[in-house]
Specification:
Structural class of chain A: mainly beta
Radius of gyration of chain A: 13 Å
Distance between the termini of chain A: 32 Å
Order of helices and strands of chain A: EEEEEEEEEEE
Oligomer: heterodimer
Number of helices of chain B: 0
Low-confidence stretches of chain B: none
Mean pLDDT of chain A: 94
Shape of chain B: globular
Shape of chain A: globular
Number of strands of chain A: 11
Structural class of chain B: mainly beta
Low-confidence stretches of chain A: none
Helix content of chain B: under 10%
Largest sheet of chain A: 7 strands, mixed
Largest interface: A-B, 25 and 22 residues
Amino acid sequence: DADVTQTPRNRITKTGKRIMLECSQTKGHDRMYWYRQDPGLGLRLIYYSFDVKDINKGEISDGYSVSRQAQAKFSLSLESAIPNQTALYFCATSGQITGELFFGEGSRLTVL
Amino acid sequence: SQKIEQNSEALNIQEGKTATLTCNYTNYSPAYLQWYRQDPGRGPVFLLLIRENEKEKRKERLKVTFDTTLKQSLFHITASQPADSATYLCALARGSYIPTFGRGTSLIVHP
C-alpha cells in the first residue's frame, strides 16, 4: 500500500459544486501539505499543517479550505468549484528534521 | 521576491552521456536544497538533499552540487538511461522547512 493515499484520483465536476479531496498517510508524520500543480507553473502550496491543531495558509489558499481530522488525515475542500481550479492536486507529508516531502499519486480535478 | 529558475526547455541527451540540470535562485538564502523526480501524472519522488554547508552530494549515478555564492545547484546523472527520462524539480527551504519548488526541467534520454 502507498504511504500517502489520495482519493479520488480523478474527478470531473461542475462549476459551483462542493468538492472534497482526501489524503491519508501511514508515514507517522506530523506535517502534511496540499499542493496544486498546473502546466508551466510548477507546484504551489495551498495549505499546510504541522500537527492536528495547526492549520496554515500557503501561497494560494483563496477558494480552498482544509481539515486535519487526525494525524494521518488531511482533506482539502473547494466550497464552490470554478473552472480555474482545474488542476492536479497533490498531498504530501514530511518528517520534522530534513523536510523532504513524500507525495501521494495526485488527484486530477476538472471543473466544467 | 523569491525566485527559483529551472530551464523550461527540455534537455535531450543520448544514452550513456551525463545529463546536467540547473537550478538558480534569487532573493533567497536556503538552508538546504532538494531534488525530486516526477513522472507524467505521478507524484514527485525525493532524490537528494544538500545542505548549505555542503558543496557536493552523491547517490549512485546522481550528483548534486550547491554553490551559495553563485546561488546555483547543478544536478548530474551520469551514464544516463532512457529510464531516467522524467521531469526533475528542485526545491529550496529554510526556517520552517516548507520547500518552495521550481517549475522543473524535462529530461529526455534517447536510446
